[in-house]
Design brief:
With 977 residues, this protein is of the alpha+beta class. It has 29 helices and 39 strands. The strands form ten sheets. A six-stranded antiparallel beta barrel has the order 9-10-14-13-12-16. It has a five-stranded antiparallel beta sheet with strand order 35-36-37-38-39, sandwiched between helices. A hairpin with a 2-residue loop joins strand 13 and strand 14. Helix 10 packs antiparallel against helix 14 and helix 11 packs across helix 13. The chain starts with a strand and ends with a helix.
Length: 977
């Protein structure tokens, strides 16, 4: 019997599965998708003769025929690029992904000699589609393929899956294919329209555009919100026993106490200052907090955001690694179902580790939302006995995420937490005051998963309230009025946006991370301090799509489309029928939107009363993919009269601080549009003028110009002089943050503003090193000067993006071309004491260059720094073949091999007698600043090997490794690494 071939998506998954399968199985990875629709590009090059013949025919056509021909040809090219033909039965053209040809060939070769091919891709629809694509690419008899699915990568789950393999579920494949085709049609057909009508470089997506709409609408709610002032009043009192009690004023007579001005608050302070504070009611009642539900994809993303500060994309990447390593169950799920054996295991763990008081009489059962895939499980550890500290060699963030999943799973099967909730009511004249507190009686599930701050109800403090009796008089200590303003709707975070998408039925667990990532990559939404802000272009595109494609942007329609795809997966609907129904309406609206006069509204600029500095025509506020800027109104004139002058606008408002009232404070500081009352965005034109633009621009043409003296926040240093031309440099803001730009229009010099608020040092011009060929691409290196020091980069950037650190010996021949400020690097040691070439590196911490030798891309332990005009070496370079982790081990094994000593037993004895000399090489040693002498230093140890003393000193580390390691200097060297 031949071996069976098992194909999975990722190498990590293959490695884990391989542990549980015997020698009769060969496990290989497809490394994700192996084929897809074409990535883009046009038709294949046409034969020159055929092209000439077609051109001749076109010339003979009438204008109407030419227009019809162009439209037909454009449509044909679009379908070719899409790879899907919606007008001929949705025929698709799949291609092997670039770079996957060798993978496909290897899988075909292995499948040919295998008796059975097991397709062990993920259990969601995308995994099902990957399995189908693999079977199609490999080819052969259909009976040879088996489909295996498992919710967790454990020995038990793997063996159970392989014991009962199935076949590919074509209904689920069709559902995934329908989703892919829908997204393809929307993206490829609307994006060219946006390029033509709005701005180049734009794109649209079936689900992503709806997600952008959510953020845009929230942005507009915030801009339209007008904060209202209100005051709160607290009273610090003492009981008869001298205990402090803080009360909040809640009522004024029968009405709620809500003063809206300082005068009203002051009147209440005066009245309460004369009043008697009498306790009129005390209520103590038991309350409970039930355990949380086990994680599904959306709740994991939300919890990882709030508790760990992880973005959605990072959360899913860490969860993927944990799943593939066999530590957690499948992480793309919307079901809270738990397997029976998992429940029994966790109940046994709780009883053993926390005691019977923490264990409910029967397991806690959680209902999944309607439409959840019950075949899936909630996200949980595969083995509850494995804690985060027992994961082994995993990165720290993955360990933290696992700890959160483990805590949630264990907590969901524990007893509820029990509290005593206390409320004290106090009367003072016509005013009613209240204090609330909560005392924990039994911690229950919170012993494993401590609740976040704010777990108590609103206005309720965690803690014991003092013992007071009804009728007791309290002594007033102090009255504390505080001013507040109502807050606008909270901005979406990545996690709260996922929650909203799930609530509205938009997208599915496997798509949330891609949706959030895509809308940021496209530049429609930006993430600042963990909150999502809608960009101007995001608002414009949303408006245009809502005007021309109402159904596509409708939340209910998008959710119903997801339900239709679910019905396709359940064989309740034909996939082509769903696609045809969508395309029939979509194509009509697309045709209407393309009309020159009645179609999609263009991205018209807003005229302002500022003259163009070049031609004196009026300037206009324009919005492009890169942001808001000023452009001359003469841009659209004929070429001979055209003026293309533009002025950069720098946002004048900093991002609000991360607290509850920060957004409201910022809104109060903004001007209001004189036309519609919306909060205005501020931009600096230059150091004397500020432009205020309506938040609804360009839909609203409102703007104001303010004159004064302005300076962009973020830099308080002296005025910078351009190192290229001597003109003043001005702080500006661009796509990659703030930077200094030369004010000379003929000079393009820039300097980056560093995080520490200082300007980056001037950059040197690139130096060509044609003799140094790139390692991964057909190109040569340039020596570049960046914010992180000198580095080698491919000359054909950005086409080729290969970079690496330079060797000292590679730069020496180019001394004359390299800036003199870097000549000290050319005098650095070209090799370490073992003869390894040295690499030039840069330390951001100390902001200086240094050189070091490396082993397989990692520091060897030896390096040299430039001090007071001299290169000083630090550390001891290990011998070839010794890894950093293996140094100590090899040192301990050495004493067992005395034959390696140069002079027999005497050197070992001499080494023991002279431990002080052992540390000598670890001391900072001055290296003469010439390349030739540096080479001599590197060869010195070899020459000295013939001398007995030198031999003895070389034997010392082998004779007394522990003593040498205990020296303070050795510790210092270890730190230096």
């Amino acid at each position: 019997m031949g071996k069976s071939l098992v194909i999975v998506e990722s190498p990590a998954k293959a490695k884990t599965i391989n542990k549980y399968l015997g020698k009769d199985f060969v496990v290989k990875s497809s490394i994700g998708h192996i084929r897809d629709l074409p990535s883009g590009g046009g038709e294949k090059l046409q034969d020159p003769k055929a092209r000439s013949a077609q051109a001749a025919l076109t010339r003979k056509m009438s204008p109407a025929e030419k227009e019809a021909y162009r439209e037909a040809r454009a449509k044909s090219q679009l379908i070719t690029r899409m790879g899907v033909d919606p007008e001929h039965g949705w025929k698709a053209r799949y291609e092997i992904l670039p770079g996957k040809e060798k993978v496909a060939e290897e899988l075909r070769r292995l499948a040919k000699s295998a008796d059975v091919v097991y397709l062990a891709t993920d259990l969601d629809r995308e995994g099902e589609a990957i399995a189908w694509h693999l079977a199609e690419v490999i080819g052969g008899e259909e009976s040879k393929f088996r489909r295996v699915v498992f919710n967790e990568i454990t020995q038990k789950a793997i063996k159970a899956a392989f014991a009962e393999p199935g076949s590919i579920d074509m209904d689920r494949v069709k559902a995934q294919q329908a989703r892919r085709f829908l997204d393809r049609v929307v993206g490829f057909m609307i994006s060219p329209l946006l390029w033509k009508k709005v701005a180049r470089g734009l794109s649209a997506g079936r689900v992503q555009s709806v997600a952008v709409r959510l953020v845009v609408e929230r942005e507009r709610e915030i801009h339209a919100f007008e904060p209202d002032e209100y005051w709160e009043l607290h009273a610090d009192t003492k009981t008869k026993g001298g205990q402090a009690l803080v009360l909040e004023v809640r009522k004024d007579g029968e009405e709620a106490f809500r003063p809206v001005s300082a005068a009203q608050a002051e009147a209440a302070v005066k009245a309460l200052g004369k009043a008697q504070f009498k306790v009129v009611q005390r209520e103590d009642k038991p309350t409970r907090s039930n355990p949380p539900t086990p994680f599904i994809t959306s709740t994991l993303q939300q919890a990882a955001s709030t508790r760990l500060g992880f973005g959605v994309k990072k959360t899913m990447a860490m969860a993927q690694r944990l799943y593939e390593a066999g530590f957690i169950t499948y992480m793309r799920t919307d079901s809270t179902h738990l397997a029976e054996d998992a429940i029994q295991a966790v109940r046994a763990y709780i009883g053993e580790n926390f005691g019977p008081d923490y264990l409910p009489e029967s397991p806690n059962v959680y209902a999944s939302k309607e439409g959840a895939q019950e075949a899936h499980e909630a996200i949980r550890p595969t083995n509850v006995a494995t804690t985060a500290s027992g994961l082994g060699d995993v990165e720290r963030d993955a360990e933290r995420l696992y700890a959160l999943i483990w805590q949630q799973f264990v907590a969901c099967q524990m007893q509820a937490a029990r509290y005593t909730s206390t409320r004290i009511e106090v009367e003072a004249g016509s005013y009613g005051l209240r204090a609330r507190g909560r005392v924990i009686l039994f911690d229950g599930w919170t012993r494993v998963l401590p609740p976040q701050s704010g777990g108590a109800k609103e206005g309720e403090d965690e803690g014991v309230l003092p013992e007071v009796k009804v009728g007791e008089i309290l002594a007033l200590q102090k009255l504390r009025p505080s001013q507040h303003f109502t807050s606008p709707p909270a901005r979406y975070t990545e996690a709260s946006l996922v929650k909203e998408l799930e609530k509205r039925g938009i997208g599915r667990p496997s798509t949330y991370a891609a949706i959030i990532s895509t809308i940021q990559d496209r530049g429609y939404v930006r993430l600042e301090k963990r909150r999502l802000y809608a960009e101007k272009m995001g608002g414009i595109v949303t408006d245009r799509l809502m005007e021309s494609f109402q159904d596509l942007m409708d939340y209910g329609f998008t959710a119903s489309m997801e339900e239709s795809l679910d019905e396709v997966a359940e064989a309740k609907k034909a996939w082509t029928a769903v696609l045809d129904e969508f395309y029939k309406d979509f194509s009509k609206k697309l045709c209407k939107a393309e009309d020159e006069k009645k179609g999609m509204r263009p991205n018209d600029p807003v005229d302002i009363a500022l003259p163009c500095p070049t031609c004196s025509r009026p300037l206009q506020i324009r919005t492009a993919s890169t942001g808001v800027f000023l452009g001359c109104s003469g841009y659209a004139l004929p070429p001979k009269e055209r003026c293309t002058k533009t002025l950069n606008l720098v946002p004048g408002d900093e991002i609000a601080e991360d607290d509850d009232e920060a957004e409201g404070r910022q809104l109060r500081s903004r001007r209001r549009c004189p036309k519609c009352g919306t909060a205005m965005d501020s931009y600096l034109i230059d150091s004397t003028r500020k432009l205020h633009v309506c938040g609804n621009s360009p839909n609203c043409p409102g703007y104001e110009i303010e004159e004064g003296e302005y300076k962009l926040k973020g830099y308080e240093g002296p005025v910078l002089e351009c190192d290229k031309c001597g003109h003043e440099m001005q702080l500006k803001s661009g796509r990659f943050g703030k930077y200094f730009g030369c004010t000379n229009p003929d000079c393009k010099n820039t300097r980056k503003l560093l995080r520490n608020g200082q300007a980056a040092p001037p950059k040197s011009d690139p130096v060509a090193l044609p003799e140094l060929r790139c390692e991964k691409v057909d190109d040569y290196y340039l020596l570049r000067d960046g914010a992180a020091g000198l580095f080698l980069a491919a000359s054909m950037f950005p086409k080729n993006r290969e970079t690496r650190a330079p060797l000292v010996r590679e730069l020496v021949p180019h001394r004359a071309e390299i800036a003199s400020k870097y000549h000290f690097l050319l005098d650095a040691p070209a090799a370490d004491p073992e003869g390894r070439p040295t690499v030039i590196r840069y330390s951001r911490k100390t902001a200086e260059h240094f050189v070091q030798s490396e082993l397989e891309g990692k520091p060897s332990g030896w390096r040299a720094v430039y001090r007071d005009g001299v290169w000083v070496s630090e550390g001891l370079a290990p011998k070839e073949g010794a890894s950093k982790s293996g140094k100590a081990a090899s040192a301990k094994k050495t004493p067992a091999k005395p034959k390696k000593a140069t002079v027999g037993k005497a050197p070992a004895a001499a080494a023991k007698k002279a431990p002080a000399k052992k540390a000598a090489p670890a001391k900072a040693t001055a290296v003469k600043a010439t390349t030739t002498k540096a080479k001599a230093v590197a060869t010195k140890p070899k020459a000295a090997a013939a001398k007995p003393k030198a031999a003895a000193s070389k034997a010392k580390p082998k004779a007394v490794p522990e003593k040498a390691a205990a020296k303070p200097k050795a510790k210092l060297i270890k730190k230096t690494k």
